[in-house]
Amino acid sequence: MNKIVLVILLGCSFFTAQSQLVTQLKKELDTTSNPLGLVKYKYKKKYKIDTVAIISTTTFFGLADSIASKGKTGKVYGPFKGSNVLVKILAKVPGTFYHFNHIVLDTSIFKPAFADSLADNIINRITSGNTSFESMAATYSADRSSSSKGGDMGWFVKGVMMPDLEKTVVGGKKGALLKVWTSAGLHIVYIKSSPKTDNAYALLLRVFL
Predict the structure, then answer these.
(1) pLDDT tens-digit map of 52-67
(2) Rg for the chain (alpha carbons), in Å?
(3) What value, to the nearest 5°, has the Cα angle with vertex 7 and ends 5 and 9?
(4) What is the separation, in whole angstroms, between the first and last Cα of the chain?
(5) What confidence category does residue 14 fall into, taking pLDDT thresholds of 50, 70 and 90?
(6) Is the Cβ–Cβ distance between 202 and 97 less than 8 Å?
(7) What stretches of the chain show up as alpha helix (H) in DSSP?
(8) Could you tell me which of 50, 74, 73 has the C-alpha nearest to residue 62?
């Protein structure tokens, strides 16, 4: 019984010491002007520096791009549940983001000529006020991930969209209703907002505890 108690006490002491070490490291990482030197020479921890792309400011694909977009430069985050890692944002780089809605007419279902005619009919119905873009997206769009949101694609950074789609979105003005062909089919694009500048890349220091 005494041995069991001793093991428990030793285990508690270890985790308490480890927790205090992590807290101290995080505090120093938050304020140091030399994070690599601190991690490598004082704490002797393994580390990695990553460049993380922020593809969208409205839809994140994991913890890394979420921190890269929403986190503050110089701030330390973590450790995270199930991962003994601290993350410090070393720097951020801006980029241009675009916001649009689209309806995708699947040309594996519709013949190109019919899809083109249908797109013209949808555009005429929207511009005449007989229906809404959101309603047409819910009815016709093959992109089911966005059709339930009225075709709203959120904010996407320049350089990650399909080339023909990006050319149309970048060249369009707010409120424009346009057609563009891509490998996915025929898109009816509504430019929802004017472009904006936001964080497009972040340099992250990962410290393995």
Answers:
(1) 999 999 999 999 999 9
(2) 25
(3) 70
(4) 33
(5) very low
(6) no
(7) 2-31, 35-37, 63-70, 112-127, 133-140, 144-147, 163-171
(8) 50
Separation between Cα atoms, residue 165 and residue 162, nearest integer Å: 5
Q: Name the burial class of residue 184, with classes exposed (0-12), middle (13-18) and buried (19+) by CB atoms within 10 angstroms of its CB.
A: middle
> How far, in Å, CA of 47 to CA of 41, rounded?
12
**What CA–CA distance (Å, rounded) separates 67 from 72?**
8
Q: Are 35 and 25 in contact (CB under 8 A)?
A: no
CA nearest 118: which of 140, 100, 133?
A: 140
Nearest to 190, CA basis, from 130, 146, 159, 160: 146
184: tokens are 């996915």
Confidence of residue 2 (pLDDT cuts 50, 70, 90): low
CA-closest candidate to residue 100, choices 140, 56, 152: 152
Give the CA-trace dihedral at 21, 27, 29, 30, to 10 degrees.
160
Report the pLDDT value the prediction gives residue 17, as an integer from 0 to 100.
67
* 107 φ, ψ (degrees, to nearest 5): -80, 0
- Total-model pTM: 0.82
Quote the Cα angle for 30-75-66, to 5°: 150
